[in-house]
Fold these 2 entries.
Entry 1:
Amino acid sequence: MTALEELAKSAEVHPPHIAAARAAEKAYEAEVGDDGPLYAAPKRIYPQSVRGRFRTIKWVVLAITLGIYYLLPFVRWDRGADAPSQAVLIDFPARRFYFFFIELWPQEVYYLTGLLILAAIGLFLMNALAGRVWCGYLCPQTVWTDLFFAIERLTEGDRREHMKRDGQAWTLEKYARKGAKHFLWLMVAWWTGGAWVLYFADAPTLVKELATGEAPFTAYLWIGILTVSTYTLAGHMREQVCLYMCPWPRIQAALTDEYALNVTYRYDRGEPRCSVKKAEQLRSAGQPAGDCVDCLQCVHVCPTGIDIRGGANLGCIQCGLCIDACDRVMEKLARPTGLIAYDTDLNIQARREGRPMVFKLIRWRTSLYAAIIAIAGGIMLFTLATRDSEGISIIHDRNPMFVRLSDGALRNAYTVRIVNKQLKSREFILSVDGIPSTLIDYVGLPPRADGRQLVTVGPDQTKEVRVMVTDYSPTPPAPSTSVLFTLTDIDTGAIAQMRDHFFGP
Amino acid sequence: MADEHKDIDAVTGTATTGHDWDGIRELNTPLPRWWLWTFYICILWAIGYWVVYPAWPLLKGSTEGITAWHARSAVVEDIAALNVLRGPMVERLTKASLNDIVKDPQLLDFARAQGRPAFADNCAPCHGAGGGGAKGYPNLNDDDWLWGGKLSDIENSIRHGARNGDKEDHEGNMPAFAGVLKPNEISAVADYARSLSGLPAEEGVDLALGKKVFADNCAVCHGENGKGNHELGSANLTDQIWLYGSDKATIVQGIQNGRGGVMPAWNGRLSEPIIKALTVYVYSFGGGEK
């Protein structure tokens, strides 16, 4: 008796992963024989279509996410004559990012850091609540693969038909169906790449240019790259991306806990598996019989080709389609649904020991994640709402640090950059305080009649001004004196300030 | 035989290779085959590079590749494209007079932006990155100019330089007085020169002698009151700025050996718009005279 058989026998219920391992071993031997090569061809997966609650959710999510992706570049947003009218635009030549009412400059790219924090913690929170929600419903790889599966079923038929035809000789029909599939896949992939480039230029203009062959080479190049990547990843790589390329399954497994809901085969209720007839016999004989009839529907609908009855595993993206498939079967058998459901191993143990089930969505982990999201999001919103639309930055001349004029006076020079983030031209008064007796010269800018210095900065632009401050005070200056540059908007009185130094010997 | 290979690891549920090393067995998890294909495609991709780009070193040069792409020529092309982009502004700069450039904020910004890298490339080695100067190399930020600080003066100095053999260069220099003047006369006149800008004289020095020596020998160039002369490039001795230093030893050295710093002529070496841009840039350091 091998250790494995001992283990299986000693267990009250067959641990499901042993059965899965036996099946995997059998499949592997069939594939590569005893002394297999170092490389194995992936198992071809033919997911069967399914209807149900989670399938509906997935269709809705697919329609919304892809709808946003493909159509968002065409949404207009009026910003006046001096700025683009595209709601979402990454304007690389002008170094601006537009998102509806938000406009970001390159120096504000830290908002991207905030978004990444929100995205990461959001992912953690999803995982703590209900496992791989991201993988199952929202990940682009899942969404596009789902769309490609739909096209595959449309052209090549559902699982049985498709498998049967793949096993047969090539006929005209087979060529036509496969040709149609790849054509449609390429069309979707091409349009995916096409939508991508529209985020980087005025969409209607670029569409026109693309159609007439006048678009820049980079646009065609990126469409080509994304066509190939979409076609390859969603059409051919599919679950291989999740199994071998994506780091999230590994991270996810390290972040989960015993209360996180996961798509779970309730083996306490399902095992031992047996047919309806056998179950009746066993039950009438007073022996235990599970609800699982081993119909393999859960395996057939799985887009990654795993057997959920083997327990939580890396290949499961937790899309819930096996729940839908199993529920259909249970309904037909007039047994309660939910043999596969969002559940925890704790509850399986609890049911087996007759204790009540526990669903703890609010716990330290989820509260902490939610709090981090609230705080990070709050800080971002606050800074975004209260950020200034004007700014000033100063570089003190380094060579020379100060200049001795022929009459003995000391002069310091500064390069001042004034930022106007509003979409209209603005007039500012620029002033320097801190040196008692000074003459301030603004290179190239004539002073106003009242002696104050006016600087006009164009819409959404910056302006550089060279400012020279000369100290005429009779007392010898200190090696360093603090000076304050103040920028005041003439119309609104909005102020931006920055400190620098006036150096002396 | 087959049974040995059917060992399944009880913990992971994965088949093992059947190999056994002191009770340690290896899980059999073959890599996906596409992984291998990706590896081969990457090799093909690298070979594609050899075909497309210059790649293999030869005895002279390298294989050219079908595109014959070179970083050097790519830069030249980029610069040419940039020049096309700047063309209209450069044309405006070329046509405008220096006084007009200074008055037009847009042209002034453009000229300063063009002048900055030109200054860093050509002028900074002597005059310093910000025109701060050094001993013997004038500080361009102050308001003391040997050859004049008006826009036209600065342009002239850039074009022709000083004491370099150019036909129109600035030629005046400070002659050596060693042998012409006696040491006590040199000492006296040095102290007199210092006194012109209010610097204290050494005790017991005959300033009257200095004044006489100055009037006889120096005033020709430096002027009777020592204010210098832009035409001759003679320094203004009455201000606080000393090109070589204000201590007596340095002044005595200057009188004994003479002075005559050289500045190269840039006419013909730099393009017309760049010379204009440099003029405006230097002018806007702050010392420019109206």
Entry 2:
Amino acid sequence: MSEKRLTASMVADAVYRAIPTLAQVLPDDVRAALVSARAEETHPRAHVVLDHLVENFALAECDRVPLCQDTGVVWVCLELGSDVAVGGDIFSEVDAAVARAFDEARLRTSLVRDAAFDRSNTGNNTPAFCEIRTTPKRCGARLHLMLKGGGSDNASRVVMLTPSAGHQGVIDEVVNCVRAKAVNACAPVIIGVGIGSTFDKVAALAKHALMRPLDEAAPDEQTAALEAELLSAVNATAIGAGGLGGVTTALAVKVNTAPCHIAALPLAINMGCSAMRRASIELI
Amino acid sequence: MNSYNLTLPLSKEILATLRAGDACMLTGTLYALRDAGHIRLLAELEERGNLPYGLVGQTLFYAGPTPEAAGRPFGAIGPTTASRMDFAAPELYRAGIVATLGKGQRSKEVVDACRETSSVYFIATGGAAAFLAKCVETSATLAYDDLGTEALRRIEVVDFPVFVGIDVLGNDVYARD
């Protein structure tokens, strides 16, 4: 069977072309959720905040300026079908593409050289954080991209619950995280939840949950019901837009689950802000 | 919730009239500074014994903007999480900063410092930085240029929308009973 060939420059080129639009244009599903939250909001201060957010995405697109001053770290996930051949270091040209795109689109450079030992700015928003996922399907290659802000990532957490904590333990932990951190994450937030796998993988489950469109529930009924229950519990906190009160604390909760060790109940909560900048792009 | 149009810099008399939750439009000078810049400013304060760069009586805006765009000084500028500056805020209020502007909750130490020095913490909408950048007329870098987006900048704003987060009595808009 014929194989499709993917090169480093094809990946880098897609990253380069996507970044300005990612920074400036809010996805349609997030726009619709903000407009609908504003229509339902009766709290006066939360209503002002939602007015600002709706005006913001219209203005950013019209003037081609960033939605948020925190134009984020660049996260890249390359999803490869079994019909794709990859040679060498497929991400070798991504950093150069990021540096060029951030300079040309006049985005903020927000990365330091080393978290522990050298907190000087790298000056070009590199490195990007890249990963590869493979799938047995013969479905070509696609790129998942996110510009992730620092404030919302700081509001995220990984907790290794015990199995006895169960369903209620998961709900409580998500609500506690929202109570402690949603204000700092630019509510109304979008919450990615990972449950299962291992300590290192559960955070990726949560991150990938943020890629799912807000109007798309989980494909299986159990997970979709958990998403609805979590959203309702989070919005019952009445933290609201900007943390100033109101009915919409989260626009959506998205859950991914996985197998895990008999002793474990890993839980990750990846907080996404209302300026959710993400895209999935077909490569070949 | 009262609404006010305020001119910067803010006098202690005006600050004393504000209450947590009030909506204000700010016009005048703000000083943008965030994380790494605070470490530098505290070091200078320690060495000199007073605030440099004409900061006495002024308002600090916790923000790191994107570069100039669309004919404006910044393409986007908005508040960053204020709690990361809690380590410096009480000392800066005591040295003469009269207001800070950011997003999110502050520590008890910051609430106490607001009460003790009759100062205020304002909040602005996070994630609305294209909208807020339209309120900025000019910008000049005053110090710490090597920090890039984290440099100290003096910016002139017109009708910049904020809420009062913590007032001079120590009331906190985020407090939940």
